[in-house]
Amino acid sequence: MQEGRRKGSLPLSQLSWSAAGFYLLVHALCLGVIYTGLSWHALALFAVGFAARMFALTVGFHRYFAHRAFKTSRWFQFVLALLASTTLQGGVIWWAETHRRHHRNADTSRDLHSPHFQGFFYSHYLWFLDRRNRVTCLEAIPDLARYPELRWLDTWHFVPFAAMCVGLYHYWGAEGVLWAGLLPTVLIWEITHWVQSFSHAWGGYRRYASDDLSRNHWPLGVLALGEFHNNHHRFSSSARQGHVWWELDVGWYVLRLWAALGLVWDLKTPTNLSQETSGASERGEPFV
């Protein structure tokens, strides 16, 4: 790791100006709510736009692609990748590969976004604007790279969001684009940032003595539809991340429904995972 990264700084020569400009542009466009105004219809659009895409992120990018916490068909795998790509968090293969790298090196000097080594601001915002972190390493994730449709989507990951916005504008005009498209995107970004930084920093509670500094934060876990971070780091390949009744895990509830419908199967849980099996998923190795 480079010295500047340990100190939490980002040299301007390593800043992805296109990514930073796009990030700021999306935030600026949200000011369009001044034009569209607030209404019950707008709030309904926001709720649906947030819930559907936050769910696709936690269940699709995170639990399925990064950790292989369940199995599904090839066509439904692509559907999950398409929906999760509308969150504008990069390509599906890139997202899964960098997240696996985080788990292999959690809260060490090799972690991509540990607040203890890179500093809070770098782990919260700057790490994904660092051009050194924005390259998809296909060789490191052969279980996903073998699918040509996922490689295509990893390259053209902005297409699903653009297509979604075209549809939203067709049916609901600027109000739809803002309230179901842009505003939920920014909120999902912020939730993701807070999970990556705050949930490795302070507060909350540690249910398990994991090898890292991960923590559960109840409000953040609920907002993220079940991302209880210390639970997750202890059983990273588990499809279930809420381990007691009051840790509300909407992602798990819907996965159970999908399993009943035959859309997914072989859901991993803390009761059927050994610590060794959890590690295997982070290396991209198949479950046995």
TrEMBL record:
UniProt domain Fatty acid desaturase: residue ranges: 39-247
InterPro entries: Acyl-CoA_DS, FA_desaturase_dom
Residue stretches spanning the membrane: 20-38, 44-66, 78-96
Single GO cellular component term: membrane
Domain of life from the UniProt record: Bacteria
Record key words, sorted: Fatty acid biosynthesis, Fatty acid metabolism, Iron, Lipid biosynthesis, Lipid metabolism, Membrane, Oxidoreductase, Transmembrane, Transmembrane helix
GO MF terms, alphabetically ordered: oxidoreductase activity, acting on paired donors, with oxidation of a pair of donors resulting in the reduction of molecular oxygen to two molecules of water
GO BP terms: fatty acid biosynthetic process
Entries under Pfam families matching the protein: FA_desaturase (PF00487)
Record EC number: 1.14.19.-
Predominant location: membrane
Lipid bilayer topology: Multi-pass membrane protein
Enzyme class: oxidoreductase
Subcellular location: Membrane
Claim: Transmembrane is one of the keywords in the record: yes
Keyword Lipid metabolism applies: yes
Family: Belongs to the fatty acid desaturase type 2 family.
Protein name: Fatty acid desaturase
Organism lineage string: Bacteria, Pseudomonadati, Myxococcota, Polyangia, Nannocystales
